[in-house]
Amino acid sequence: MQEFIDSFVKYGYILVFLYSLGGGMLALLALGVFSSAYDINPYISIFVAFIGNLAGNCLIYFLMKINKNEYSKYVFKYKRKVALMVVLFRKNAFIFTLICKFIYGLKTISPIASALVKMRFDKFFIYNAISCFVWAVSVFYTALYAASFIKNTFEQYSSYAPIVLFAILFLIFLFFKIKARK
C-alpha cells in the first residue's frame, strides 16, 4: 500500500493533468486527500488541474468549431441537452460555463454549446479560464479540508470506532430490510 501511495504522490500531477483534460474531478479529489497526509504542493496541484481542464475544453471547442458536421452525429443523442445549453449560453454564458464545471454530463457539452453558439474564442477562453480556476480551487480545497476534518474526527473519537461501525452497519441492514418489504 505504501508503494502505491509513494508512486501516486510522485506521479499524481501527471494523472491529475490527464484526468482533468476530460473534466474529471476524481484525481484532483484524491490529490487533495493525499495532500492532507503527505507533502504535496497545493498550488502545483491546482495549477496542473487548471491547465488540464482548460486545454481539454479548448480542444473540444476547436474540434467542434472546425468539424461541426462530422461531430454532429456523435452529439445527436445529446441533442436536447445541447439545444438547452445553446439557449442558456445565449442568455448567460459566463454563469452557465461556471455552473457546468461542477455538473457531470454538462462539462463536455459546455464547450460544444459555446462552439455551436458561435462564441468568439477569446470570450470563451476568458470565461472558461475563470471557471476552470474556480473549479480547481474549490474541488482541491474541499477534498483537503474534508480529509483533514475526517482525520481529526477519527483521531479524536477513535475509541468509539467499533461502536460507530457497528451502528452504521446495523442502520444499513435495517434500511435494506425495510426497503425489501416495500
UniProtKB/TrEMBL annotation:
Q: Which InterPro entries match?
A: DedA_domain, VTT_dom
The signal peptide annotation in the UniProt record is: none
Q: Which Pfam families does the entry link to? A: VTT_dom
Looking at the UniProt entry, the stretches that span the membrane are 12-34, 40-62, 124-147, 159-178
Is Membrane set as a keyword in this record?
Answer: yes
VTT domain residues are 27-141
Q: Keywords for this entry? A: Membrane, Transmembrane, Transmembrane helix
What name does this protein carry?
DedA family protein
Native organism is: Campylobacter canadensis
